[in-house]
User: Fold these one by one.
Assistant:
Number 1:
Amino acid sequence: MTRPANTPFEFKSAAHLLFIERERASNLTELLDSLRSCPEGSIFQHTFRTLEEHHFIKEGFSNDFAHWAYSELGMVGLGERLASLDVREFTSLPALRARLIQMVEDFVAQNPNARDHQAESPFYFCSSSNIVLPVELRAHNLGEFIEGLKQVSVHSIHYHFIEARLRRKLETNDFSLWLQRDLGLSRAAGLLNHIDIYTATLEGVKRKIVQVLQSATN
Amino acid sequence: MKDTGQSFPTQQEVATPPETQPTRARERRKPKISDTPPVAPPPARLSDYEPIIGKSQLDELHFLADALRGKAVKMVNSTALGGGVAEMLNRLVPLLGELEVKTGWEVITGGNDFFEVTKGFHNALHGGEYTLTQQARDVFMLHNEQNRQRMRFDEDFIVIHDPQPAGLIASKTEGPARWVWRCHIDLSNPNMEVWKFLQPMVERYDSAVFSSPAFARQLSIPQALFYPCIDPLSEKNKELDESYIQEVCDNFGVDRSRPIVTQISRFDRLKDPLGVIHACKMAKKYTDFQLVLAGGSAADDPEGAVVLKEVMDAADDDPDIIILDLPPWSALEINALQRASTIIIQKSLREGFGLTVTEGLWKGKPTIASAVGGIPTQVIDKLTGALVHSVEGCAYQIRYLLTHPEFALQLGRNGREHVKENFLMTTNVRRWLLLFRILSGN
């Protein structure tokens, strides 16, 4: 617990501001057009960011596209497919955009009549601009790291644990990288990457991270 | 003792009608409430919000403000008193000041002719019939020009609220000041003649801000999204002593030993109070509860008085339908009624953002609301509340939530978190700080 890290872990967070984009969709044809033309910030907002905005919900909410397909288009099958998308499989927004387009195209190919079915209400594309915030917490060893985790907000957890993949272009997160690189805790680092972020609230994810790290030290 | 938000009776209690005969409805219609507005409490300070949002969120506000220290902001709107915009500015301006972002607030002046024109514009922008005359254009531009000549715009950020003062943009120069148009109204279906008149002015701003993506227009400038917000420390939303909640219920003849279903809204057909009564009558065939319909005073609104009478007639002296026509200074009483409620309803036929929904969600109440206006942004069906599209749907959700209290409690918990994350005054402060930083490039 007290073995010093090669470099301290600096906790950060991010603040986001939403912008309304030009794209909006009332059916799957328009959704596909908009998915192709919208800024990358929209892909980020409606997948990564919405997970943070709805961090307190653990059932039925994984991304805005899935929710819209299910609740506004009434297409449960498409909703389920889109909801199965795990943002942690992506280290770039173009790849995530391509997967979304592919999923909708596949659904339309199998259900041609669904293409122009009108939604109850449109999907409005938004995007987010963010500013990184310091948290003024540093961890020099595992004990301090666990204490830091307990203190930081869920937004900090989202920043380090979920958004980090896009920033680092790696299939891992800030916590695991530091644990492996600076403390040599490869097993714990690996276990963190297996925590399910879609069946728990972000508070629950935070508790699970702490639990994994406490177990690693026993 | 504080209200815990857990006012659910057990299923057994729900299903069993009370043995005592409730007070007759007509005897309840004279609640003890002051004839004059009480003295407003002192405004909350930023640190007062820490127990609600947590230290980390408060620290983030200070960090965001640090880069803006020494900058000046001017807010301009058309009224200092009354209405949601003035109410919001009354809280926002001192909070930004406390963060050392010097913020001033000025109100434009104008004669009856100006405000008649702007009222016409307001209705037209909501889609109402309107013929834009040259005289109306001239009156609008003349008063904007007079205000522009009177005012100085030396600040770093100028925020103009709503269409009335939009013409002040003529003072924008090539200098570093950034101009923001904050539109609080729904522009989704405007009278195009009026919108085409205003649009060139709006597009001279550096950014616009709307309350919902659905309310926005296609514009050549960036459009930020600021959801409307509530102040958790206001009279309407602050925590109340359990004894006070009980006192208000006793005063209004509301029986807290039985479930309470409440809609708070002025007596207006667009709030569908008759639909609520109908839904409750359908649901009451299966489960016992009282309905409280509490709204603003209808004294100065002829149509409101007509609707109130229709509501009284529909209630037909049912002792379990409690109709309360409250004066505008009843914030504490409304707060108490919401906290005493088992379920909150907002069965509007048309709605703006629906801040009464936000208030109910903030109090951790399971909320049943129509899928109109800004309500679906707040009520995510089956996750933060129940969305309905009909009287029948409303009736079913009342029955379901009253007989599934654990699910209802979870909706209430999620709803409160949703408000905490997105619709509180402190979130609004954060959004302004972010927008100013983004506009100034830092």
Number 2:
Amino acid sequence: MTPRPILDVSGLCVRLANGTPVVEGVDLSLEPGRILGLVGESGSGKTTVALALLGYAKPGVRIAAGTVRVGDEQLVDRSERDLRRLRGVLVSYVPQDPGSALNPSARVGEQLADVLRTHSLPAGQDQITAALGRVQLPATREFIRRYPHQLSGGQQQRVAIATALVCGPSLVVMDEPTTGLDVVTQAGVLKEVQRLRRELGVAVVYVSHNLAVVQEVSDDVAVMYAGRIVETGPTAALLARPRHPYTRGLVASIPDFLERRQLRGISGVGVRIGAWPRGCAFAPRCEQKVPHCEENVPDLEAVPAGSLVRCTEWQRTPPVTSLPIQARLRQDAATPLLGIESLRAVHRSRAGDVVAVRDVSFSVAVGETVGLVGESGSGKTTIGRCIAGLHEPTAGSIKLNGGALAAQASKRPRAQRRQIQIVFQNPQDSLNPRRKILDEISRPARILRGLGRRAAEADAVNLLGQVQLPSSLAHRYPAELSGGERQRVAIARALAAGPSLLICDEITSALDVSVQATVLEVLRTLQAELGLSMLFISHDLAVVASMATRVLVLESGVVREQGDLERVLAAPQDQYTRRLITAAPRLTSDPSGLVPETAEASGPEHG
Amino acid sequence: MTAQATVAHGARGHLSFARTWSGGIGLVLTVSVLFIAIFGPFLAPHPPAALLGAPFQAPDSAFPLGTDILGRDVLSRVLCGGRTVVGYATIATAIAYVIGGSLGLIAGYTRSLVDPVVMRVMDVMLAFPPFLFLLVLTTGLGTGPYVLIIGVASIHVPGIVRIVRAATLEVKGRGFVEAAVARGERRSAVLRREIVPNITGTLVADAAPRLTISILLVASLNYLGLGLHPPAADWALMLSENRPGLTIQPWSVAVPGLLIVALTIGTNLLADAVARSRGTSIDRELIAR
Amino acid sequence: MEPGHDSDPPPRTRHPIARFVVWRVAVGIALLAGISVLVFIGTAALPGDAAAQILGRNAGSGALAILNRELGLNKPGPVRYWDWLTGLLHGSFGHSLVSGDPVSSLIGFRVVNTLILAGAAGLVLIPLAMVLGVIAGRRPGSAVDNVVASTSLAMIAAPEFIIGTLLIFFFAVKLGLLPAVSILAFGTNPLGDPAVLVLPLATLVIVGSAYIIRMVRAGVVEAMRSDYVQMARLNGIPERRVVVRYGLRNALAPTVQVIALTLQWLIGGLFVVETVFAYPGIGYELVESVIARDIPVVQAVAMLIAAFYIAINILADVAVVLLVPKLRTAA
């Protein structure tokens, strides 16, 4: 007899104050000691569901219908006082950003003691020590007296987890707990979650946008899109053979650093709250849609392997194919386009100088993509900025085609400035909000190639097409574009100068994974067409692996390892590299889940 | 967009400043008083300095608001008395923006030696109590409109420099500005095309409470007799001149007083509504000052 | 160092607070010095002949020359500045150009009067405004909040001299309850005749409290909207505790800054309010001296007030550092 589920959500509906639905008709169920992954991109409603599991809704939002049962208690339609009694003791929450979720004026010990005392539990030294020990934090007097700002990101997150566990809840809701942590710390936290489930028998709802992480940690998964669950079932089976077109699109867009394959993003733009289409919310972007998909919202149907899918056409969903990456352009290794020799750079501040880049040397050949991988603080961004002429190195040389590059961009001759272009991380900042897209894209052509206004604008429209954006976007302002669209415009702007080297600095780190896939594929296509060299900077090993042929692994400003991508990933020499590779989450630990296709069968696709 | 962002976005969209009730009241008050101040002199029945009747006569058909301490028509003086308050405050604030804005832009963008030198000087000026500064200035330079304008402008300059510098620094770090720098564009082009258009929003939000403060300062100084001299027709001056007649003929004090209050409250409400439409609040602007 | 950076941030320096206080005081003294230069230039180094002022426009040039020499006005600027500054530091504030009396005797009792008025105003308005600010901030958007917020928004903008005149009109003229002008017998102080304090006090309280109310309200609203308040609620902590230990506790620092700003504003407001009521404090004295161009008095009072202003700044900065753990533990 299966144990009674510890969590039972039925028909949960959450709406804005004006009635606009945010979450609609969500059913979830979780047995004790099991981990459920709740997956979705921004706007899917997953955080809203996570909060509703504690009977909480943010200001301006309310739980309009449905029931949430945790243990023996109903959490909807209870008084705030009752809910407070239950929160922390029956069900608790681990927030996404622990830095801002801990009381800045309270010491570590006090944060824990506060929760204990609220629920009338003993809050003495023993309890605090035990709580900290449970998440492998030192229980020294010194540590207990620290304030949140005196903890590292990983420590803060562990304190948050300790606080969530301290009263012994039956269910813990973790809301993207590893976002913002570097990959090695993230791996540590994930191990922690699994250990806690094993030792304490807690049930966990793990919310994330990262399918690979969810796959590593959860037993079952529920995928959300536009406020509804579109597919749910056992994790391994569901991710090996997704039935809903959206899930399939997500899986196909996730880069994997060992099985390098072409990525396919999901066309179209995510659905915004208040703008849900009639019928199936995914229909506008779906390749398998039929007319009735846009009329009615499908119900959840059972599917082999124990999953439920919200799609009437699920039978037609093809498996995720693994198209190997196109053969790279032959590189002419003899003529390095870019040569970096013993580069050294510092960040100056009032607190003193911090060495960001120490003695880094490498080269980029014509047509080659070199990846720079490292966590924040590794110096990878600084290297990119030095090459672009935005940061002055303190020592070393940068040579373009054998000729020296001046440290500042303004001092470089026009021909050199043309050849190196850079695209930045943050899509909110990458474009001038006061200028139309056409204006923004045509500018480099006018400044660096001396084109007149008409010629530059025609060229700009052309470029929009090359980054697969409709030319109607040319007369819009950046505020009207989505993040992925803005990044593609930034790429088009960079290309308008006709560069030979494109520096991509974490250009997809702030984008949803399906959007990221589109941008990366566009970039890969362009590179093949134009024979571009690229310096691809990212903290995400899988993303770098899908783009680069050679890679440099950076740590604290030093190159730990460099070489051919295949070799570094298969046989890493350096300990740090090995740690990175082990810690990076992978979507499929079971290679048989993907159906590989041979190169001939795939045929020449995007040119 | 997340649920929270949608709520915030929606709320902000509906608060476009003319539509909140307090912003609406502010707009009405400000516009009405400005109208009287600007067009009043054309509507005045008598010259403001003319001695036409007995002092402190009660309102009647000849003098709808009665006469003042010297027997001049209160209505005419009221209609003519707004220009000085509004005019000097506006001119002083505008001058402050020109000077302070340029200094702030240069300090924020060039980060050369200019930056720390300018900022230290601003720190000293900011440490000087504003009203005290005006009093000291009038001691040395004498009273009169020019001193008034210079003094009020000087009070605003440090605050403006700080705000413009901070806004410039913030915009400077954004991707599109760095892209322009990487293209090797000239400093003047970057300032003109990329930076200035993106700080105007901050400036507008900052200007509104500043204008209120300018009006308060000018009015207070005029009241103390340290700005304009009699026989000038000025609302604040009228308040101090006609105080002896408060019991007999309150209109000569009440009307100019009410007009000043209406103006300052109106501009303040407007300033708050503008700030709220940008997602911030006037309180934060006041602290930044 | 461990990859993953899951270890401690770097250690802190010793005695950070003491060093900060010393630094702040040093900066304050430097600022005061800068201000003294500005004051001196503003009053004595600009055109406007002090000797001609005293002797009148028709004085002969010989008499002018003698007086100039006596007043030391024929010495070069920097020398005069130095003489004046050293004099100040020794407590000798010079003599009034109008009455000839030593400045210290003129302003001594006035400083006391002003302190009484300002002190009383602070004691009344700070607690009152803080309470109102917290009440409004706890329930943003409610009826109470709308009333409080709008009223204070309007009151901030109201000029003190108009409020003062209004109060005089109603309470002194119409109702005859309180004196319209604060006339005190020379040598007595307001504590002996508190009726003269009431209206000036009321004026200061009305306008000044509006300021604090707005700021405290904003601070409370921001603290209550923060992530850590939401987290506390999600941990089941009862609302009362959330408000006090999570909300208000983190709104303390901005509140201290606001109080400091208000005290500084009070200084500015005092000039006008004392003049409206002819209250015998240094604010009124300064205004009269400015009108009479009694330079030594202006200089002395200006420096006194500036010193006070800067002292408040220093106290506020130190208080904020003590209250905010992040600043307190930083180097």
